[in-house]
Amino acid sequence: MNLELALAGVAALLLLLYLLYSLWQPERF
Question: Does residue 28 carry a pLDDT above 70?
């Protein structure tokens, strides 16, 4: 398992979660 691939996956997942959270609560954004 490549470390870069794992880091890229985690970063993409966190970014996706952050975008979903901002869409669910636009007031706090």
Answer: no
